[in-house]
Predict the 3D structure of the following.
Amino acid sequence: MSLRQRLALSYGALALTVLGGGLIALLVLGRAAPALEGTPDAARFVERARLMLLAATGAGVLGAGALAWWAGRAVGREVGRAAEAARRMGLRRAEERRLPNDDPTPPDASFQPLHDALAEATRQLRQRTVPRAHLNDILDSMTEVLLVLGPARRVQRANRAATEALGYEAGELRGLPLRRLLPEAEDAGAGSGNDSPARGEGTLHCEDGSTLPVLFSYAPLHGERTGKQRAVCVAQDLSERQTAREKLRRSLEEKDVLLREIHHRVKNNLQIISSLLSLQENSELDPRAARRLAAGRQRIRSMALVHERLYRSGNLAEIDFADYLDDLIDHLVRAHGAEHVRFERRVEAGPLPVSRAIPLGLLTNELVANALEHAFPENAANAPTLDLRFSTSGTTATLVVEDNGTGLPDDLTTDDIENGDSMGLKLVRTLAGQLDGTLEAVDKARADGGKGAGGSGLRFTVVFPCEQNGTAT
């Protein structure tokens, strides 16, 4: 049944309903009329009601018919237009099917601007948007463990490196708290109270109970779509690095032990040589030869003290020169029986490397031994005093050995000391040259012009640079 026929039936039923209602009302009034004949006003009222019902019923029937006719015409026109549009669309589609496949002409020229705009928007969106699959491929290609954390710092996303390192499946990792997997990261970042970025070293706890040392980085996520209490944690396996570090540590310890053993053996060998010279000295009948053997033994002892200090020191590259001088002077005092000599030691310098400490120690040994042996005769008027000073200032170091003894004999000058042929003086000049320094000897009485204001005795001054061959002392 068509739409027009349905409308006609609907409006016809409406008209019949109105007509039937009117007839029923007329019948009711007709039955009530005999009862009201005795009352003139009631009879006139009934008559008027009949006329009004007849008029209303007729008007309703006519109105229903007119409405049905108008609706049928209107619906018919719309249906006709829809049919015509459908026919045209069918013809257009048929025409499109007949066009070549490479014909870019749109079906309707009026949609061309919209078509172009949508194509351009699609192209730009593809250029600016990273596909989710591509992003997942990037995360899974990382060799570092990556954990994306949600509320309460529970794992929401983990890359492939995380599942392989921890031994969990991706579904098993989801929902696990960060504290269970990497407690140091939560303590350093989330545990700080304000959920701030943090990094450091920690321990990654795997599913099988094993652990991995890692270097982690924890940072909260910020953005409109991230919400609150979101963070990302990245961890890098340090197993190989720690293995290499442990190998290097053991290698350094072995070298340290080896160097200490070398210094210990050198010291022992020097002590053996010193003992042999002491035996030779005791059996020597010639006093001059015995003194020379004793001087050689003292020089060897000064070198042995350096190696002994290095063996006991925590740093094998340098020694504390102040402590070294204390040991050296104590040894020289005992060797020369000079307990009556008052020593004044003033050292204002830091540790010295071995390359500087050994020649400086030998040079100090020669100057102090020379003063103890020649400066203080038994009948000296003044209390014997030996002043030893060592200091550094900028790039220059200065060693001063000064006594208040008898000074030089009348037949000797300071030039004789600086250019003398004795073993001790040659050794002092050689050691000063090894330090790239200068040696100065001053007879204090003669320097004062014999007035005595400068005192008596000798003063040796050695000045040398703190750096030698590019190495700082």
About this structure: The chain has four domains: 3-87, 136-237, 250-316, 318-473.
